[in-house]
Specification:
six-stranded antiparallel β-sheet; about 35% helix; endopeptidase fold (from Nostoc punctiforme); about 270 residues
């Protein structure tokens, strides 16, 4: 009895399922056919989820042309300078000087000719020929004056006493040219400027150490490696060679005495 009640619902359920399957088969076939047709010939009227909506935009020409307008820079107005008044204007706290007229003389003063300046500088920098000639002439006169004493006997005194020593000889020679030399060789050595032995000139004084440590003998350079002096050994004024053994070993230094422009005779 119980089994009958159970079989009856199962039979009803199977009957319903069979009927539903018979109804769905034609509908599934029609749906498939419709989808195939739609993919081949699409229709605009049918609504589709995957339909792409495109809006066409056609460009239109503007009625007025586009014009590029550049920004304009502001105009700069240069300030006007006030006119300079003449010199002596009392209202201004400063002095105003008018520009001079451009004449040839003013131009030459403001911008001098460089060639003229160079010529003037060159002429001033070069020593005058007359000065060089005067110096050379003075040295020759010193030597000429010294030669006048050649052969004078050696002794203390001067030419008026008909004898002389080394410092008395140089004293009398330079006296004629306005130079007052002291009496002793050591005192004469303190005057003048030092001269290198390789730069000796006529008229330079040469000092020697003979019997004491300070300069005790003096001679005048006569040029060509010669000196003129009052020789103690030969007791007279004579020439000697500066390379002579006795004088070469005792030579100390040389001095140059500035000569005055004077040419007088002994008093």
């Amino acid at each position: 009895m119980n089994r009958r009640y159970l079989l009856l619902p199962l039979v009803l359920l199977s009957t319903l399922l069979n009927a539903d399957s018979q109804r769905r088969e034609p509908s599934l076939f029609l749906e498939y056919e419709r989808e195939v047709t739609r993919s081949i010939v699409p229709s605009e009227d049918e609504s589709s989820t995957f339909k792409k909506i495109v809006t066409k935009i056609t460009p239109t020409k503007p009625q007025t042309p586009f014009v590029v307008i550049l920004p304009t820079s502001p105009s700069v107005v240069s300030p006007t300078l006030p006119e300079k008044p003449s010199i002596g204007h009392d209202t201004l706290p400063y002095l105003v000087i008018n520009k001079p007229t451009s004449t040839q003389s003013n131009i030459s003063q403001i911008c001098p000719d460089p060639t003229a300046l160079s010529s003037n500088t060159t002429s001033e920098s070069k020593p005058k020929k007359s000065i060089i000639e005067n110096i050379a002439s003075a040295k020759e006169r010193v030597l000429a004056r010294a030669k006048e004493f050649l052969g004078t006997p050696y002794g203390f005194g001067n030419k008026n006493a008909v004898q002389t020593d080394c410092s008395g000889f140089t004293q009398q020679v330079f006296r004629q040219f306005g130079v007052s030399l002291p009496r002793s060789a050591a005192e004469q050595a303190s005057l003048g400027t030092y001269v290198d032995a390789s730069d000796l000139q006529v008229g330079d004084l040469m000092f020697y150490q003979t019997y004491k440590r300070e300069p005790s003998h003096v001679a005048i350079y006569a040029g060509d490696g010669q000196i003129i002096h009052a020789s103690y050994a030969n007791k007279r004024v004579q020439y000697d060679n500066i390379d002579k053994g006795y004088y070469k070993q005792r030579f100390m230094y040389a001095k140059r005495i500035a000569l005055n422009n004077r040419d007088t005779t002994d008093e």
